[in-house]
Amino acid sequence: MTDQTQKNRMALLLIAGIPVTIILASTWLWYYVASGRLDLVGMLGTANMGSLLSPPVAMADLGAVDASGRDFEVRAERPLWRIMILGEGSCDQTCEHLVYYTRQIHTAMGKYTNRIERLYLATDSQSGDQALDGLAKDYPKLNLLYTSAPAGETLRAATEGEPAYFVVDPEGWVILAYTAEADGKDIMADLKFLLKNSNG
Which residues fall within 8 angstroms of residue 105, CB to CB, at 6 or more apart? Predict the structure, then answer.
């Protein structure tokens, strides 16, 4: 056997061995992640800027209703991602700043704007509460919702810190949380990633 023939055989074995090695490595990786022996997300981190809710919270479990007392419908005519502000039955100066800030974020999303809806979830308040009439008048595109104080605490307990905004996916899962100090660019980066890489 010539040296050239031996080199050719070694090259063929190497080429054939690459897919087998990849399959074995991926099987090993899957086994250790699935069994909990390897925390891949913890090791590599995530690309999102907000705090990931684990597990996510379902909007349906929050018992949110609109001003008419009707249950909040997650499904719209088209799938919508939502920026949700967690507030109270009245909106003080800090609250109004948050509402204004999320409107600016929404507008700055450009071509994605029509795929996003803004929500204000008022806790410890009744639907149709007079205290939020001014908010509805000043921000007609803000969808006002009402829920109980315990439901609001469920959201607050789902993440570290004091969350002010949340991102809700088109299926109604609250998946990301941000504090009032969060940079709008971070929220926009997360939303653009989600919108670009989803069908909804």
Answer: 83, 184, 187, 188
Q: How far, in Å, CA of 160 to CA of 51, rounded?
A: 8
Compute the distance between CA of residue 76 and CA of residue 74 in angstroms, rounded to an integer. 6
User: pLDDT digits over 48-101, tens only?
Assistant: 567 888 888 898 888 888 878 888 888 766 789 999 998 877 777 888 888 999
Q: In this structure, are 52 and 24 located in the same domain?
A: no
Question: Phi, psi (5° rounding) for residue 73?
Answer: -90, 115
Residues near 107 by beta carbon (within 8 Å), at least 6 away in sequence: 113
Same domain, 122 and 34: no
Which domain range does residue 165 map to?
46-196
- Residues 165, 45: Cα–Cα separation, whole Å: 22
Indicate whether 38 and 55 sit together in one domain. no
Instruction: Render 115-177 in DSSP notation, one character per residue.
Output: GEEEEEEEES--TT-GGGHHHHHH-TTEEEEEE-HHHHHHHHHTSSS-EEEEEE-TTSEEEEE
C-alpha torsion angle, residues 135, 139, 145, 150 (rounded to 10): -50
Query: Residue 39: CA atoms inside 13 Å, Cβ hemisphere, count?
Result: 4
14 and 69 both lie in a single domain: no
Same domain, 24 and 58: no
